[in-house]
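WARN no homologs supplied; continuing
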Amino acid sequence: MAAFEYQKWGVQRAAKQPLLDFLVEGLKAAGCVILYVSDAATAPFLITFETPLGERHGVLVYAFFSNSKLTKNRPDDEHRFQIKYGSDTSTVLPIEQDPSRLLTTLFVGIDTERGILVGADPVLHHQTPMFISLEFKRQHVDSILSKGWHAWERESRRRDSEPVEVLVGVAQHRLLDFIRFERLSLGLDPGHRQLLAEQFLGSPVLAETGSHALTEELGLDPREVLDLIQGASRLKMAVRGWVAEHHLEHYLQSIPGVEDCRRLDEEGRPDIELRFRHSRPILIECKNVLRDRAADGSARVDFQRTRASKNDPCSRYYRPDDFQVLAACLHAVTERWEYRFIPTLALPSHARCEGRIQNNLRVSASWYENPADAFELVTAPA
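OK structure emitted
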């Protein structure tokens, strides 16, 4: 804790105090004992507390006011919160994480009038530009108010250039559950972030027995889960992402004709390499689908990197020769570890970025259930 340094911003104490009070009151409503609260004149807020079970924890909260004020040229049913510290519109905001994981980072908009909080993925928003707004609809606010907990896929005005994002809204009295959710969801892809959020809606006690429920969901015993995480050099990556690759590797090893199948543990490389019937190496990228299906019932893949280089916005999107086969893990939709496969050369081209693959994909009937069908296509003579 003492070694964790994060950037602080001076803010107006009187203006931000209601946000800090909302958080403290929410924790108290859950039976927590407050141990420390930072000054409201400094952002982000730091709060440490003891849960009703005697667990000591803390949160680092990037909090902003959420409202539904009518705005010119914007929909009447829109709610939003603006990301703003200071007055420099060119500044980006680092959403920082405690490397010791003693603190959980929250990135939220708070509607003090309605008594609700809407949280965005803090990992996705690291280095987010200042003065942008995150918008959501009145229907989502109504769901939060009626159920106390609601998760949804955010509609974006720039869907073609932004990764898909899942927002989670909670009533004030469920703040402790939301903190536990963010602890478990750190680094998850959008589909599994939404799946986990929906499980919290139906079973708030999941957080208390999270390790047991999670091992059941993953289809592995606790020792296998720990060995899987310990053996990965990218230790802080999303657990479910690694489990998807783990199940995929073992499944592919069972396919007749597959040889030398191994998972690659290298940053920036595809996930799996194999040979098929003595072929040259075939590289496979595994992507988790989103939780919500398309209108036609097909699963959806947000097929892009989280970040692009400043000099090349198109670097966010993949090239067909980055790997040969895309494997879509359907777990976020079906809650089973099953996959569909397609050669990257069969994927549609991006409309604006030449030589890149479209980022909004549908897992249609043209995708193969048997990976051998995809492997035969990529190894066939030209």
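The chain has two domains: 9-208, 226-379.
OK
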